[in-house]
Specification:
333 residues, alpha/beta, TIM Barrel, eight-stranded parallel sheet, globular, binds S-adenosyl-L-homocysteine
Length: 333
Amino acid sequence: MSDNLIKYIREINEDKIKEVLQYKGEQQEKLFETARKVRNEGKFQNKVELRSVIELSNVCSQKCSYCSISKDGKEIYTLSREVTEEKIDNLAKKGRRTFLIQSGENKNQKFIDDVSFCCENAIKKYPDIKIVLCLGNLSDKQYKQLKETGAQRYILKFETSNPEHHKFCRPNDTIENRLDRIQTLIDLGFQVGSGNIAGLPKQTLGNLIEDLKLIDKLNLSMVSSTRFISNKFSKFGEYPDGDIDLTLNFLAILRILKPDCLIPSTTSLAFDKKNGQKRGLTAGCNTITIHDGTPKEFENKYSIYSSERFSPQELYCREIIEECGMISESYLI
Ligand code: SAH
């Protein structure tokens, strides 16, 4: 059964995948077991990358319908060079070696110069660290500038690949442009991460299969799928949250498709199910983010998913990793 399942998924057999996306109960457990087997027999076995996130700024020029970062009248913040460096120092002292530096989209050159300054200095000070940037669409020149600091990775999710659905979810951008940005990052030599959001309003199972086909084509080191979380301050605030099982099944399919990629189990899985992130690891994920890099006073101002933030700390993260029989590492790639 499991060999057949792997074959169907790797061929992206549409009928079978539609069925698998809806698995529950025993069938779902078998799917997860197959995904875990693929992961554990792959390059990183049962290791989990444990990283920290620093949310640099909530200034954002996009207006994505699912995201509440661009809500009107919000109080904006941007961490200064000094605060960012201090945060990196504190985390590095605690032994952290992978830093996810995330922000709203801001092409302002001063902002990019500040990020570049911090990346360059951090890498000089701690030559063994990994910097993962997630700053949205920037110009070729800005991506090149960031790459030259020594930052190794960049995450830019396409979010949803169907052109019309993309326009509905990200009215200020197009899928063509987003894909062009992703390709530029790959061509510059970044280790690139991309993926989608599962359970978005008006998303069909067919759309999810289109997403899988795209992921299969791209040359990615990291892939991800977050579960759509509805936020009353976003345009999609009236829609329900995405189905957690659908996201978990999608993650398990991703693992079977990409045995050696980093796949995060995100806090989007943890809103109404306490064990959501643990379920993500059970479904084949191998990356967990500790939310200890953003200064407390700004945490609630960086609200992409929800106003009630869930900010998992080190102990909790280490516990769920251990409970899943996995081993934490400071980085895997
Ligand atoms: N500005 C950056 C970072 C965005 S936040 C960029 O454009 O890439 C990081 C990720 O959070 C997004 O790529 C998106 O996939 C996810 N996200 C944002 N809002 C969400 C929501 N309401 N539900 C689920 N995922 C969401």
